[in-house]
Amino acid sequence: MKYLLTAFAIFCTSVLTAQTLSAEENRIIAEVRRHHAANLELLKEIVNINSGSLNIAGVKAVGERLAQEYRKIGFHTEWISLPDSVKRAGHLVAWRKGQKGKRVMMIGHLDTVFEPDMEANPFRLLNDSLATGQGVVDMKGGNVMMLAICQALHNLKLIDDATIVCYYTGDEESTGEPEWLSRQDFIARAKTCDIALGFETAQNFNTVAVGRRGSSSWKLTTEGRQSHSAGMFGPNASYGAIYEAARILTEIRRQLEGEKYLTISPGVIAGGTELNSDDKNFRASVSGKTNIIAPAAVVHGDLRFLGEAQKQAAREKMKAIAASSLRGTRAQFEFYDGFPSMEPKPGNYALVKTLNDISLAMGLGEVKAGDPGSRGAGDISWVAEYVDCLDGLGASGGGAHAPGEVINLKELPRLTERAALLLYRLTR
Ligand SMILES: [Zn+2]
After folding, report:
1. Is 196 exposed, middle or buried (0-12, 13-18, 19+ CB in 10 A)?
2. pLDDT tens-digit profile of 94-130?
3. Distance 35 CA to ligand 1 centre (A)
4. CB–CB of 312/323 below 8 Å?
5. Distance, CA 415 to ligand 1 centroid (Å)?
6. 417 CA distance to ligand 1 middle (Å)
7. Could you give all domains of the chain from N- to C-terminal order, each with its CATH number?
8. Ligand 1 centre and the CA of 209: distance in Å?
9. Is the whole model's pTM more than 0.70, yes or no?
10. Tens of pLDDT along 9-41?
C-alpha cells in the first residue's frame, strides 16, 4: 500500500509538472510574442527573395539574411559550399555548443519550388488570418520559427550552455546530385546531436510527423524474340517484350497492392522494335510495326516505402516476378535509391509525448502523431537512423508547391511558442 501511494504521488507530481507551465516557461511565451511582429516582417522580406532551388544567388541571399539574425543572438554561422558540378547553392548552419541537456538539431530549407522564370507572388495578406507568397509555408514560415525560438531562449539566457544546430539546406526541393555529397555535412552534423526537429509544414495544428516514407526508383527492361505478329498465338512464338512488361506490371500490382506504406507505380513506358531509352531524362524514342512481335520494352517507375526492410523485400518480390518469364522473353529490373525513409521509432513517439504535455499545459489541445504513410520524403529522413526525430513542427497553411500557397498567421504564434517550450524542455 505504501509503495502504491508513493507511486501514485510520483505519478501525480509528474502529471502536474508536465502539464502545467512553469514561471520560466510563461516568460518564454511572452518573449516569443514580443518579437512576433518583427519576425513577421522578416518572413515577408525572405518570401520576397526568390529562392528556387536552382537560383543559387537567391538561396544564398535568404541564407545570409537569416545568418545575420543568428549572429545577433550569439550563434556561429557557416556557409557549407558544394562543388560547382552539383549546381546548388549550399547550406546554412547556425550553431552553438554547450554541455546541458539534449543536443538538438533543427532543420529547415532555404529553397522553394518556384524558380525566377515562374510567375511572381509577393507576400500578401489575404485576410486577417491567411497570407500568400512563394514558399511562405513550405517552408520560410518554419525557417523563421526556428530563429524566433532560439531568439527567445537566448534573450532569456536559457540556452547559454546548450548545443543547438540550426541546419538550413539549400536544395531540399531539388536535391543536388550526387546526394551522398550534397547531404554529407548534414548527416555528419546530425551524428553530433541526439534529436532532430524538422520545421517542415505542419500537417495541421495538432498533428506532427513521426515517420515519412522514402522514395526510390526502378527500371524494367524486357526483351522478346522478334517475328511475324500473325504467329503470336502459336505454340512456339515469343510473347514479345510488351506482353512480358504488361504481365510483370500486372503481377506486381496483384501481389503487392495493399501492403501498408508501400506503393509501386510505373511512370513511363515504351516498347517496339527500335527503342532508344534516355534514362537520365526519362525519355524514350521508339518505332515499330503492328505486324511485328515487339523485341524491346522499357518501363521507369517509383517505389515508396517505410523502412529499408520493406524496400528490400519489395525489390526481391519484383525480381522474382520478372524471373518467371513468359515463353521467349527475358526481363530485368534495376533499382536506384532516392530519399531514405524516416521510420517511426519509439524515441520519436517520446518526443510527441513531450510536445503533447506542453500543448495540454498551454491549453492548446492534444498533439498526435500523424500516419507515417501520409508524408512524403523530406530532409529529416537522411538523419532518421542516427537521432530521434520529429517533423512537421513548422507553420500551418496549405497549397504547398502550388502558386497560391498560404500560411495561417493565426496559428503561427501559438505553434512558435509551443515549439519554443519543446526546445526549452529538451535542453534542460
Ligand atoms: Zn519543404
Report:
1. buried
2. 999 999 999 999 999 999 999 999 999 999 999 999 9
3. 24
4. no
5. 17
6. 21
7. 16-212+342-426 (3.40.630.10), 214-337 (3.30.70.360)
8. 13
9. yes
10. 444 444 445 579 999 999 999 999 999 999 999
